[in-house]
Design a protein that fits this description.
The complex is a heterodimer of chains A (119) and B (239). Chain A has 119 residues and is of the alpha+beta class. Chain A has one domain: Ubiquitin-like (UB roll) (Roll). Chain A is built from two helices and five strands, in the order ββαβαββ. Chain A has a five-stranded mixed beta sheet with strand order 2-1-5-3-4. The longest helix of chain A has 7 residues. Helices cover 22% and strands 33% of the residues of chain B. Chain B folds into two domains: 94 residues, Elongation Factor Tu (Ef-tu), domain 3; 126 residues, Rossmann fold (3-Layer(aba) Sandwich).
Chain lengths: 119, 239
């Protein structure tokens, strides 16, 4: 079994999901087995304005531990993260960061996204 | 309106461009206007099969336009969201958040701009070009627009008019079709871009904006970045 621990910058209570990786995808948005897929499939919301298609940064999360259990960043993800506010060395897009092995990952859901800015 | 706030809009009218492409013109309560940057999209919340689907739809109109806001999209064969939207009529309502997205052109260009649109990818690019032309920038603005069949060309009259109205704007149509009215280049965007902007000269100061469906978008990105164009000068949205 794998485990995803979700913490919030807003101070909301943390949530823990234990799941069988072989059962991915858990729903229809984001890469199968991604943080977004796992959260939505366990009825925990995460913003994903583009439907989990790697076209915005609303599912930006910061990986606090367990990065080695996740897929490596691809160029499209890095290009979008480049524009995310509060970017950190362990920032990921929830729709693209895929669990590749059993283990525990802890993420922090940040408060804001750049997509709120308008011209 | 706040991007995160779930808002409602009424479908004012529908324009059918062809059998599988249409525009919905959305009007907001109290004739409110949505503040957005050319290139952004709305995130529609669609009630399908007992669930709420979140799906992005690019804004085809300009921020300064009066009247309803236009979104334009294709009917996707297996796409639950687009099938739902195709079932709606004038007077029906939709809920959305947004605007969202970082594939934008918000300011006057600071270099020659090449827009690469494949099929329905013209939608967010249309207001981006409009913004570039309205900014009275000295730099050339070029659109390379590929469609497989002539009837798939969107906003053709407007694009052709821009070539007459703006000396810095040029339009190249690419595709496998022939037309009496239009001069088209045979071949793919990838081949044309490689010929015109990689092999032809050493100028690497241009800015590229790429939008379309599928892997061709990232192939164009890789071609241009690999040829020496700056990473941040090659921006794209892949559907």
């Amino acid at each position: 079994m794998a485990k995803l621990r979700v913490t919030y910058e807003t101070g909301d209570p943390e949530k823990v999901i234990e799941f069988d990786l072989d059962k991915a995808p858990f729903q229809h948005d984001g890469q199968p087995g991604s943080i977004l897929d796992i959260m939505l499939g366990h009825e925990i919301s995460l913003e994903h304005a583009c439907g989990g298609n790697c076209a915005c940064t609303t599912c930006h999360v910061i990986v606090k531990s367990g990065m080695t259990n996740l897929s490596e960043n691809e160029e499209a993800e890095d290009d979008l993260l480049d524009r995310a506010p509060g970017l950190t060395p362990t920032s990921r897009l929830g729709c693209q960061a895929v669990f590749e092995k059993d283990g525990e990952v802890t993420i922090l859901v940040p408060r804001y996204t750049i997509n709120q800015q308008v011209g | 309106m706040d991007s995160r706030q779930v808002s409602e809009a009424i479908i004012d009218r529908i324009v059918e461009h062809n059998s599988d492409t249409r525009s919905l013109f959305l009007r907001f309560p109290n004739d409110q206007r949505l503040n957005f940057i050319p290139g952004q999209f709305l995130s529609l919340q669609l009630p399908v099969a007992g669930k709420i689907l979140t799906r992005p739809y690019s804004i085809a109109s300009n921020p300064e336009d009066r009247g309803p806001l236009e979104i334009c999209f294709n009917l996707v064969p297996e796409g639950q969201g687009s099938h739902y939207l195709f079932s709606l009529g004038a007077g029906d309502s939709v809920t959305f958040t947004g605007p969202w997205g970082t594939f934008v052109l918000g300011q006057a260009p600071s270099a020659e701009c090449i827009f690469l649109a494949d099929g329905i990818g013209i939608v967010p690019i249309r207001p981006m070009i409009h913004r570039a032309l309205k900014s009275h920038s000295q730099f050339a603005v070029r659109l390379l627009y590929h469609v497989a069949r002539e009837y798939e060309l969107l906003y053709r009259t407007e694009l052709e008019a821009w070539t007459q109205q703006h000396v810095q704007f040029s339009l190249e149509l690419l595709g496998g079709y022939t037309s009496d009215r239009l001069s088209t280049v045979q071949g793919s965007l990838l081949e044309y871009v490689e010929d015109q902007y990689v092999k032809r000269d050493e100028d690497r100061s241009r800015h590229f904006y790429i939008c379309g469906v599928g892997s061709q978008v990232t192939q164009l990105r890789d071609l241009l970045r690999g040829a020496g164009y700056q990473r941040r000068a090659v921006v794209y949205e892949k559907w």
